[in-house]
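Question thread 4412

I'm putting together a teaching handout and wanted feedback from people who do this every day. The idea is simple: show students a protein as raw sequence, then show them the structure tokens that encode its fold, then repeat with a second protein so they can compare. Below is the first pair exactly as I plan to print it.
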Amino acid sequence: MEWVRGRAAVVVAVVLGLLAVMAACTRTDSGGRVSSSQAAVPARIPSGTGLPGGAVDVGFAADGSGFALLAECGKTRCVQRVAVLEKGARAWRLGTSPLPDVTGDLGITAGLVVLGPGRALITEGKWPPPERTWFTGDAGGSWREATTEPTGTTTTVPEGGALVENCSRPDEEGNGCARSRLVAVMPATGEYRILAHQPPLKGVVIPAGHIGARLYTYGLDPRSGNPALAVSEDRGKSWRTSAMPAGPKGWSMTVVTDGSVLYATHHGQLPDEDDVKNGLLAIGRSTDGGHTWEQVWKHRKGAEPRSILGAPIAAGDGSLTIHGEDGVWRSTDDGRSFSRSGGRGPQGWVTTTPLGYLWGDSFGAGRYRISADGVHWTTFDLGDGT
């Protein structure tokens, strides 16, 4: 199951329909964390440096197959392509692409949702909604065009499906959403269907991650008005509210796990630092499956990490890593304090997939790393850079 937002990303480099990494089925130490000697082996993804253009978006299914969106840009036109990796294949191949060429300075807005082996949905990424979509069920051999307009209801998010924020009314400025609902993208057809039982939250409600069969969504507590998570343990049939420590309203939360402990990063505009685009407001930690949360870190002016690009990495060795706008920050005390790890400036962004954490470079060079446990990584490259 994969998590995406139903409109083009507003925050640079942040994928707001983010996945929570699947916990590796491995032996743990006395603290409940994955033993480094027994850690999951990362997937071996072949490079595709012969693919034309640069990679725009990449996604994988649990069996190791995947899709990539590519853009080959000249002075006045970008040709958009689709690359396909089949299970066990040693090389990527080009599939058919339903996407039109992009001219002028419109930019690349398309997004990718992998719905299982050989199945994917491409979203147009235009605003306001509804936007066009294209679905393939035959590994890029053919595509069926539709839109993000829901075509019915569903009681659950099926295995392999995606939980998506669907904006039903843009705000007065026309740049954001005033009213939204959660919908499921059906893995067999790519159709959007309204989730019959919505989370008990108010405001704009968006996905925050999933761990096993548990689904997490972010919104506001209807009683206190504070940021809160709603949790479903049955793929969206029912929900319970998970209260968070009081804090400022943000944009989203991302929930991940190291195999035993949950972490929730709270993303939003920092109250006193306008030079930060992708602010990190707070970090919560839960040891009881998200029933209760402790706020282990809170933004203080000038204290790093001030920002977060994508998802945090809750690793099997107990560390927590944040990729920010001014470098990488690592904690070895449950997210209570951080030290710099590496150089300054953007050092990549992180999302999660059914295979684990996926890191991509910050400058469009096509360099990627993937890890099942946040400790052991393999590298692959996509695109010839044209």
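The second pair follows. I'd like the answer to focus on this one:
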Amino acid sequence: MVNELRKKYILNYLNKNESISIQDIVGSFNISEITARRDLNELENKGFLIRIHGGAIKSKITNGLFDFNSKAIQHSEQKIEICRYASSFIEEDDTIYMDCGTTVYYLARYLKKFQKIRVITNSLPVISELLPFPHIKVYLIGGELDNSRRALYGPMTENLLNRYKADKAFIGAGGVSIAHGLSSVDEKEASITIKMAESARQVFLLCDSSKLERDSYFTYSSLSLVNYLITNSVVDQKIIDMYHKNNINIITV
């Protein structure tokens, strides 16, 4: 937990100051230079910063989150295929949650064929995608707007979600691993995802294979939260076997 707090501090500091020195980290947390370097190296390996002599500078990621459009186009073909298949689990008269992930966003494209479903989301891009289809009932959960993520978060959002129940929740994750479960680069995003999953009868985790056996810095749930993990077919068979061995229902498309 202390390790995660340090990493959050580093990312927030870089967001405000563009660069951070090892001495800044050592002084703020009373840790060794070796530990500070290890933190920076781990964050660099995940693409959150760029190491320089004596410290690090800000990367293209702001506070650990890509701009929505930039992230949405990454692995877009795989995301689209994952969502096409995921839509086959939806039934008429379902109430579904959709979180604000860039993979889940593509699921909205496959909802127009349904005549009677309800969608509950905190994602503005999902809302925009569904606007041309008035036969779909859409509920936007209010809260504080995150401009880069184009989604609503915060205590208001979480409190409103407590009032709803859904048949199915479609969620994403920044990282997925057997050892640590689901992880994210942002705690507030994780909080909303957890709320949606806990209030649904079935939970579908949609993520491309680049997320598998990878950890983001904030772990928020075990894989027991998930009923189905749907990913693309470019997955090492050893990983698939490992997930099946751990009773995780992984589907490749």
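Top answer:
Good format. For the second protein you could add a caption like this: The first strand starts at residue 19 and ends at 21. The two ends are 36 Å apart (CA to CA).
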